[in-house]
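Sorry to interrupt, but I need a hand with the structure work. Could you add the entry underneath, on a fresh line?
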Amino acid sequence: MAYRCAAHKKASLSGGSVGAGAGGGRGYGGPDRISSLPDELLHHVLSFVTTPEAVRTSALSRRWVGVWKRVPRLHLLEGEATNVEHIPDHFDGILRRYAADVDIADLAITYHWDWPEVDGDRASAWAGFAARRVTGRFDLAVTSQVGRGGDDDAHAFLDLPCFERATEISLYSSGLAVRLPAALDAAGDGDFTRLTKLQMSELRFSDAGEGISGVVSRRCPSLECLELEHVAGVEALTLRSDSLQSLRLASVSRLRRLEVEAGNLRRMRVEYCFDETRSCRPWNGGGAAAVMRLSAPALEELGWEDACPDEVERIRLPTCLRELAVSELPSHIIRSIGQSDFSGADVLKLTSPMTATPTLDKRCAPCCMSNCNCHELLKWWDEDISLDSLEQLCVKHIWGECEGKKLIYFIMRNSKVLKKITVVFSRV
């Protein structure tokens, strides 16, 4: 007789069964101890598997029927769906069957298939379900072909409701325009009361930025982090917040006005927002000027990889910057920021704009107009900047050997604990 394993051979010769010794159970698998666990533990166990796998546990026994409906984590991802022809309907069915009295700590819905199509109505319904049920993170990523033609019909919009209990929202809506709630509803509800982090990417607004400005400034009392990346339809962005600590704007196309008034803002990065605005403006100076208004006295890290706006209004400058990484701002703006106290800085990165003239004295970008404020002297060695804590200095691709030496000498003279210097001159 052939035996499947040593345990089966031993059990057969002794007249017993596998697992009968230690557990006292019957048959090969022994007793079903997992099914005897409390519901709370089963919900916790199922939170570590995919949602389709959790749903399929209903076929195990009557004990498991409906257990998945109370798991506080739901991830509806098209890559994990089994029936690709009816994925949106399958998602709707799971949401309808989920227990009505259970809060969801983590809900993610992603769908990027061309067929069957997901329009604005369905995406809005998913967002509405999340607004009622989610108490933690909500992640919605949908791609639609409906609104790509530019027609503002009813099916090309994703209407985002208020999330009074969610703490994090990540929204990706390619092909759909996003409409944010404009005012309080009849019941007096309408704030994102607990929201601390808001990420939006690959989407467009239809109101020139008025909606996102109003939501962040007046309806997110707890918002700490805001990220907008590859966002269209925002001509003016006005952010006034006492809670905001981190702000990142990347490829907010054709942004013409940026106003930031945040007393507790610690980190700010602006990448490729104003450069497209300036490149689209006629060379004769026509079109609206790009304007920035900055009031961030607590700012510790500033990263600017963008063109400089035509007008910069400095209301309240940072008082103690720790990291400054600048690649496009002209010297007079950097000098204004340089009035801050750098005595506590750990990292200080100052990268000047690309220049057409190989000298440190004159900074002129090849694409600048004749009246650009980049046309001015950059003699930092005459500035009163404290560098008492600077320990390492790295200067790369500097033009103008004589002027460069003056700048380096200035830093050495004003740095009391400088230990390492690295200098790389550009060859022209």
About this structure: DSSP finds nine helices and 19 strands in the chain.
